[in-house]
Amino acid sequence: MEWDDVRVLLAALRASNLHDAGRALGMNASTVSRRLAALEERIGGQLFARTRDGLRPTAAAERLRPHAERMETDAAALAHAMHADTQTASGVVRVATTEAFARILAHHGLLAVRGDHPEIVVELLAGNRPVDLGRGEADLALRLAALRQQALRARCLATMGVALFAAPEYLRVRGFVSSAGDLAGHDILLPAGELAQLPEAKWLARQPGVRVVFRSNCMPALVEAAQRGAGIVPLPIGWGKSERGLDPLFELDGAGKRKIWLVAHDAASRRPEVRVVSKHIAAICERVFAT
């Protein structure tokens, strides 16, 4: 298989239909269809089932996937080596992360990367749904789970603990909290939705005598409510201490320590602009979440 054939195969594997595959390749859907048909004829087997819902890879296509991804990585490395002396950091770098991490990155100077690299544009994609880096949905992902898939690189940036925080005004009126035994009678701001599975959310909801007054799957909304004196919120220690208007109460040992991972597709990590943004994100996380 030639590299052009591999590019078409990978685009089809990562897309749900011919149109999306063509857009990734800069071709129209009919051209992609002809290229796939020619490739199938050459190898003597079907690679994709054409269904009403789009392309469905066959077992043969899935067997080729890891080999095609290795060719992609090698091609990117070859291109990087050829242009190492002339490459500049420029273009769009898409960073996928949660709303909480997005706020932290923006607040602590992610866009300062353009001071030394004005040709870089950062596109911050915030949401709790994990993105598929293999399909090219983003260049980088900042997350709490390391992906161990082939062709993905994961780097641990920091380890964070979790503590409770509240506004000084709230504590003056309702009393200070220094242990779990002091929580009875206090108002609680609780992570909800998919964030309800966090250890600190489960632990806090079980505490006797607490009153849940606000729930949200948006951590920045919970932080805002706490800053306005609505109640007590659980936060990563580094994040909580960096927020104005919040005082730390005590660390939640039962919540454990969690690692923050920066994940990138191997091919994307070789682009100079992605390397620059990665380094900047690492510096922010190491500064904010150092414990």
Question: Which short descriptors sum up this protein?
Answer:
single chain, 291 residues, alpha/beta, Arc Repressor Mutant, subunit A, D-Maltodextrin-Binding Protein, domain 2, 3 domains, 5-stranded mixed beta sheet, 3-stranded antiparallel beta sheet, 10 helices, 40% helix
Describe the structure.
With 291 residues, this protein is α/β, with parallel strands linked by helices. The chain folds into 3 domains: 3-82, Winged helix-like DNA-binding domain superfamily/Winged helix DNA-binding domain (Arc Repressor Mutant, subunit A); 91-153 and 272-288, Periplasmic binding protein-like II (D-Maltodextrin-Binding Protein, domain 2); 162-255, D-Maltodextrin-Binding Protein, domain 2 (3-Layer(aba) Sandwich), CATH 3.40.190. 40% of the residues lie in helices and 23% in strands. The chain has a 5-stranded mixed β-sheet. A 3-stranded antiparallel β-sheet has the order 10-7-11, sandwiched between helices. It has a two-stranded antiparallel ribbon with strand order 1-2. Helix 1 (3-14) crosses helix 2 (18-25) and helix 1 packs across helix 4. The longest helix has 24 residues, at 59-82. The termini are far apart. The mean pLDDT is 87.
Q: Main beta sheet: strand number and arrangement?
A: 5 strands, mixed
Structural class: alpha/beta
Shape: elongated
CATH class of the largest domain: Alpha Beta
Average pLDDT for all residues: 87
How are the strands of the biggest sheet laid out side by side? 4-3-5-12-6
> Cα distance, first to last residue?
51 Å
CATH architecture call of the largest domain: 3-Layer(aba) Sandwich
Stretches where pLDDT falls below 50 for ≥5 residues? Answer: none
What is the CATH superfamily label of the largest domain?
A: Periplasmic binding protein-like II
Q: What order do the SSEs take from the amino end to the carboxyl end, as H and E?
A: HHHEEHEHEEEEHEHEHEHEEH
The third-level CATH topology of the largest domain is D-Maltodextrin-Binding Protein, domain 2
Number of DSSP strand runs = 12
Classify the helix fraction into a percent range.
Answer: 25-40%
Q: Give the DSSP E fraction (strand runs of 2 or more residues).
A: 15-25%
What is the domain tally? 3
